[in-house]
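Thread amino acids onto this structure.
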């Protein structure tokens, strides 16, 4: 008992007890903060979904139906996820300006808060791709690997220089210059218009990050060789030069013969 009493009176016992108390208090505070943050996030999402439902009923239900169940004028949005809404609404493609082969990019009708609310509402209707995390959009991936992935999976429509290209029946693959990394990522996971869906099984999140890095790099580099003539490739550019050259020769010949006569 005497030895135990001496250990209790050890000079470091008070410090040890203080440190233990701080550790327990800090741990409890961290757990409580996490729970409160989760509750706040859930509450915020619920509020966004509620406000988004009002916006949807006033602006989108005409085509997509009440509850986004779809109609003859527009497809069901149940299960498309927040990423699809953020892309379509954030790029101004929705609401559509007019019926046509595909929706055109235009100034967005809704601000960022309203777009987030619409996305939260549609996400509440069923599981689907979510808006990507900031870490996947930092443009710090492997540009070389991204270029290889882009040429393998995307260049046949968007052009090897991401300048866009024509498709069938009046449709087209848009140019990717000036498109935000978030919208590029969302397009890959949702497959808007005629674009296929590239799930994580097709292209991993890191691969998508590499593609965004590649696209932003070639956009920043510009055209060091001068006018890129739309970056349509050597065949199209050669045909343009051939036709233009023949036109100049014909015009010069006509002018020369008129001078002679």
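Threaded sequence (261 positions):
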């Amino acid at each position: 008992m005497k030895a135990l009493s001496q250990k209790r009176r050890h000079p470091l016992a008070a410090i040890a007890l203080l440190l233990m108390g701080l550790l327990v208090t800090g741990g409890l505070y961290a757990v409580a903060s996490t729970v409160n943050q989760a509750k706040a996030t859930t509450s915020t999402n619920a509020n966004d979904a509620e406000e988004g439902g009002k916006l949807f009923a006033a602006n989108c239900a005409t085509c997509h139906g009440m509850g986004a169940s779809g109609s003859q004028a527009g497809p069901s949005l149940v299960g498309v996820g927040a990423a699809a809404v953020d892309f379509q609404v954030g790029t101004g493609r929705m609401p559509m300006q007019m019926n046509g082969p595909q929706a055109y990019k235009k100034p967005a009708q809704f601000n960022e808060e309203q777009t987030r609310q619409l996305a939260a509402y549609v996400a509440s209707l069923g599981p689907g791709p979510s808006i990507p995390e900031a870490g996947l959009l930092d443009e710090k991936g492997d540009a070389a690997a991204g270029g290889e992935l882009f040429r393998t999976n995307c260049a046949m429509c968007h052009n090897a220089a991401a300048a866009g290209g024509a498709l069938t029946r009046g449709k087209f693959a848009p140019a990717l210059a000036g498109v935000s990394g978030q919208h590029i990522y969302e397009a890959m996971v949702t497959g808007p218009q005629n674009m296929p869906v590239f799930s994580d099984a097709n292209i991993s999140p890191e691969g998508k990050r590499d593609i965004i890095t590649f696209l932003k790099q070639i956009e920043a580099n510009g055209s060091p060789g001068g006018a890129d003539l739309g970056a349509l490739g050597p065949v199209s550019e050669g045909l343009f030069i051939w036709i233009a050259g023949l036109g100049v020769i014909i015009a010069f010949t006509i002018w020369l013969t008129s001078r002679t006569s």
